[in-house]
Amino acid sequence: NTINSSASPMGAEQIQLLLHMCKEAKKSAYCPYSNFPVGAALLTGDGKFFSGCNVENASSPLTVCAERTAIQKAVSEGNMNFRAMAIASNSEEDFIVPCGACRQVMREFGRDWVIYMTKPDGTYIIRTLEELLPLSFGPENLKKF
Amino acid sequence: NTINSSASPMGAEQIQLLLHMCKEAKKSAYCPYSNFPVGAALLTGDGKFFSGCNVENASSPLTVCAERTAIQKAVSEGNMNFRAMAIASNSEEDFIVPCGACRQVMREFGRDWVIYMTKPDGTYIIRTLEELLPLSFGPENLKKF
Amino acid sequence: NTINSSASPMGAEQIQLLLHMCKEAKKSAYCPYSNFPVGAALLTGDGKFFSGCNVENASSPLTVCAERTAIQKAVSEGNMNFRAMAIASNSEEDFIVPCGACRQVMREFGRDWVIYMTKPDGTYIIRTLEELLPLSFGPENLKKF
Amino acid sequence: NTINSSASPMGAEQIQLLLHMCKEAKKSAYCPYSNFPVGAALLTGDGKFFSGCNVENASSPLTVCAERTAIQKAVSEGNMNFRAMAIASNSEEDFIVPCGACRQVMREFGRDWVIYMTKPDGTYIIRTLEELLPLSFGPENLKKF
Ligand SMILES: [Zn+2]
Ligand SMILES: [Zn+2]
Ligand SMILES: [Zn+2]
Ligand SMILES: [Zn+2]
Fold this sequence. Notes:
The structure is a homotetramer. By secondary structure, chain A is an alpha+beta fold. The first copy, chain A, has one domain: Cytidine Deaminase, domain 2 (3-Layer(aba) Sandwich), CATH 3.40.140.10. Chain A has helices spanning 12-25, 66-76, 100-107, 129-132; strands at residues 38-44, 49-53, 82-89, 114-118, 124-128. Chains A and B meet through strand 2, helix 2 and helix 3 of A and strand 2, helix 2 and helix 3 of B. The complex binds zinc ion (4 copies). The site of one zinc ion (ZN) has 6 residues of chain B, from helix 3.
């Protein structure tokens, strides 16, 4: 498996749990302005799970997406090695995809992990970060102090 | 106590724990670009604690502050009633204060809770949200769906 | 006039123009999601005017406020010395106030300039940045390269 | 030309001007924290040009990129039909690419316009928005009021 060459492959159980968690996470969404709840679930390289939801604000620019909430939770508890994220919304018609801002935040932590974009009926599509944000820049491109 | 009229007053122990937690949270900061770690700890109305750190990005606008990380964690686990937040940095000279963006995110969840702005030596100043973001707007000012 | 001690005082004409411009700027707002147009007008230290509107996005966090649009325009044309900003919306009930994020962006360029917060009926309230974002931090608090 | 099927093709002169403007725009950058100036130039469907630079803030999340400054300027002056953007930085090694947040802001205004990503030596690569942000969502995916 080229995507997770240095890790054990994700098991079917882990994937099922991830897909379940993102749906559950949606229930905590604080979205009084859009009425568009989103949930995300994140799996780390060593098998831990973190979930997140969108948290809106009366000033739109201060709203934050579910995907970033999950990543911030993981980072704040010492995890920066990610294998997969799953995202869920109530939209029946579209697979819910991450916005460009979230893709950049994800990309900070690697290009070869995978995103599961789901529909409420349980179907999904999968892409790597590299596929979702090609020609990106990241930590390698900036000098660190 | 007018600030927490509907709640039991914060005990000295809770405050000590909050001040300790924000220092600890700083250790998880992901800040390779600024080298300026910040930690935050949040106390809910029913006595739960959440902590957060700053999570930076190669694209600066996608960086997020410690205070917002803590709030997003709390909201994503069902908590929206906050009593106090404490913030810590390594800056010896200044009490670390929340940026305007964080004040607006805090304000979404009330105006009368309090922020402890600390120095590494353990001293701090306290202000309510109302004092930190006077003449603000929030959920009450917008029609919800 | 302590607010503009190093500059000639703003004339009544300049203020009238600023108040007029922020109303006009509102007409360019791109706000299909909130249907809440906002306009802003900015007066520089040497008498130039810049205006801005809110520019929304299908992903809320990527929305930007009118006040920041005006400031970015001014900066991108070489202006960083500001004297006053006026803000307008269609809300009859409230004087339109800047969000915390905008206050922090304004504060980058000084603490003693003034904000005119208007109602559609032409009335307004005025505050300095220092009053709108007390206990703030800014460029002075960070080491620059 | 499939990219601008409903418009006259961009002329070589327009492209040269766009590439020149993004380099010039870089000179207005306000970037005391990163010391990484970026310039952008935007060409509208009816032949108007707008430029922008990055505008940083002591609080990183409030920094804004050059690309968004250019777009906000154009929108605030009534333009929402874009044909091309060019971006310049001082980085000799890399073609400067837009961050994910900027890609989402660009995408609000269409998927088939093109981005010129340059190096200081005058070379560049070109991609459509669709190529830079595949599988995106935008205005069509959200109900408007
Ligand atoms: Zn997002
Ligand atoms: Zn902040
Ligand atoms: Zn604002
Ligand atoms: Zn950008």
